Amino acid sequence: MQNQSGFVHNFIPSPNMGENGALTLLLLHGTGGDENELIPIARMLKITNASILTVRGKVLENGMPRFFRRLAEGIFDLNDLKFRTNELADFVLNASKTYAFNLNRIMAIGYSNGANIATSILLIRPEVLSDAILFRPMIPLVPDTLPNLSSKNVLMSAGLHDPLISRDQTEDLFNLLKKVQAKVSIKWQNSGHELTQKDVKAAREWISSSFNTKIN
Ligand code: MLT
24 and 107 in contact (C-beta within 8 Å)? Predict the structure, then answer.
């Protein structure tokens, strides 16, 4: 489905979405993925009663969808990143009215490029997300004015052998999130940039220890 903001997306309501505190998962794919990429991962998390809003990035790099332009691997076009971050944040706000989901409980689940734009939303539009699971993230930008993320729960799941993101880059993001007071945890996987079952297990354990959210 495509609305006037031009984002291809899919909203999958939970039967209990009207309930107070009902969670919506915002799924943000990696480079070359689309809005279907993370649905199996979200299903594996088995969060009872969570709705899903899943979005396709609008920027094409050699035909591969992304959420913002990059100049080279890991080197981002910061003007485009800021513009795209605000555009996506506004889309989520509008979608919460269109689909009547709770704006106070939106958890981003992002992989790689999707994790990077989720982090950018946390840093420059923090009102849009309550929590985030970031698979293979790095620092997308450092805003001039740092937000206070003390109400946000964040899980970072990183690959010890990731050829795209060094251990230092991962730790830099962890330290930045700590500095802005996010409740951030990091889990290291014995893997590269790809997602593994261990990432899903880590996310399930983190959800059950961090929230009063039912998983089954
Ligand atoms: C990015 O461009 O966001 C990162 O380099 C990760 C990716 O390859 O998508």
Answer: yes
Q: Is the CB of 113 under 6 A from ligand 1?
A: yes
Put residue 136 in one of left, alpha, beta given phi > 0 → left and psi -120 to 50 → alpha: left
Q: Are 101 and 78 in contact (CB under 8 A)?
A: no
State the pTM of this model. 0.95
Distance CA 173, CA 156 (A): 9
Tokens of 212: 């009063």
Pocket of ligand 1 contains residue 74 by CB under 6 Å: yes
C-alpha distances in Å from residue 59, one per residue of 8, 76, 96, 172: 12, 13, 23, 26
- Position in ligand 1 atom list of the atom nearest CA 117: 3
Residue nearest to atom 1 of ligand 1 (CA): 113
Residue 57 in contact with ligand 1 by CB distance below 6 A: no
Low-confidence stretches of the chain (pLDDT < 70) are 1-5, 18, 20, 212-216
